[in-house]
Amino acid sequence: MAAGRAQIIAPAAAPTTTPATSESQTLMATSPAQPPAALSAAELARIRADFPLLKRRLRGDRPMVYLDSAATSQKPDPVLDAEQDFYLVRNAAVHRGAHQLAQEATEAFEGARATVAELIGAQPGEIVWTSGATATINLVTYAISNATAGRGGQAARRFALQPGDEIVVTEAEHHANLVPWQELAARTGAVLRWIPVGEDGRVTVEDADRIITERTRVVAFTHVSNVTGAITDTAALVRAARSVGALVLIDACQSVPHLPVNVSELGADFVAFSAHKMLGPTGIGALWGRAELLAAMPPVTTGGSMVEVVTMTEATYAPPPQRFEAGTQPVAQAIGFGAAAQYLSHLGMDAVAGHERTITRLLLDAVAAVPGVRVIGPTDPRDRIAVVSFVVDGVHAHDVGQYLDDAGVLVRVGHHCAQPLHRRFGVAATTRASASVYTDEADVAAFADALSGVRKFFGVSQ
């Protein structure tokens, strides 16, 4: 372990978590009537000290202000140490060996699964490791394709699509929760429909009962938009889907890192999220699925690790989650994922949400204070997270990002893998400032100061 780092969180240790919170409780917790618990200044300082990269100086010896956490979060020492500890102490293949290292690696690997599961109110057997949320959603769509082609036997027929069946998404989706459904529709003859986004950047759930019909077989939507930061009214969409017997998949990449989430109370059938957006490693994500659905789904990737019996003519497959985890496992990444989940659990997701709600208000205030700058999405801090996308009149988003970068403020520019949503608002690109639990008021103040100079620098100020 590097000198001065926090103690390694043992991946196989029993996780300690705060009770998960239902969607309705989450929305209440982000409203002014019931302000959530927040982090004290001392607690925030201790958290920031756990993230070594936050100490980095940029060109011109400027301090770094990191406001791109919606793209990828920074990693605390316990996560970095957990991965290094695996390689230094117990590096071995999992589920394959009888020797001590293999046993220890397997215990750490499965202990991480249990830790991630507990963070979101799930059981370990309901968590499937993937390479990220994009792979997770593709796994589900290809499993449906395989079921449609007759694979998986009688149990899998519940997933099969027919020409004319409907798949419903929303206009707010990241491409990862849109393109795979487009492809599934093309492969099966299903029809893709979508629920629009209103002027405030929120999904118009009042349209759900009109768009979700008896032909709807799947409803897939984002829990929180990665562009507008708006929290979707999941209860309304799940209710509409359930009324017609449709499957529900929720993209929770922007909610699990920032809000208390209990998957069993969301009402979904599948939930996708990624480690790298929640203080964990890159290259690993998770699919949560209802146990009975995972047991009925046909596999997508086949080969080693996911089989029971193989002959020269056929094979039988292991039960979930191993059925969906063919090949060499991302052991170090899973252990790091578990350490990240444990880190968030120890902080308490109510406290994380409370702190980030303060940052949300500060970011919105900072943007509102600059003439000629407008937010794409809700301008009210309620029922949203600290993801603030905006347009600077007369200045391209990429130029805004470059100017802020020169000031040491790191933000995201472009369409954020959500071209239809940007097209909905008549813009090709936005600048996005996004926060995490380590973001402090000084970060927002530096952002506000830099943003105030953008239009003058480019000669478009009034």
From TrEMBL:
Lyase recorded as keyword: yes
Residue ranges annotated for the Aminotransferase class V domain, each copy included: 65-447
Enzymatic class: transferase
Annotated keywords: Lyase, Pyridoxal phosphate, Transferase
Ranges where the record places region Disordered: 1-34
Molecular-function GO terms, alphabetical: cysteine desulfurase activity; lyase activity; pyridoxal phosphate binding
Skewed-composition ranges (Low complexity): 10-21
Gene3D superfamilies with a match to the protein in the record: Aspartate Aminotransferase, domain 1, Type I PLP-dependent aspartate aminotransferase-like (Major domain)
Cofactor (UniProt): pyridoxal 5'-phosphate
Keyword Membrane (UniProt): no
Identification of the protein by name: cysteine desulfurase
Organism of origin: Rarobacter incanus
Lineage, highest ranks first: Bacteria, Bacillati, Actinomycetota, Actinomycetes, Micrococcales
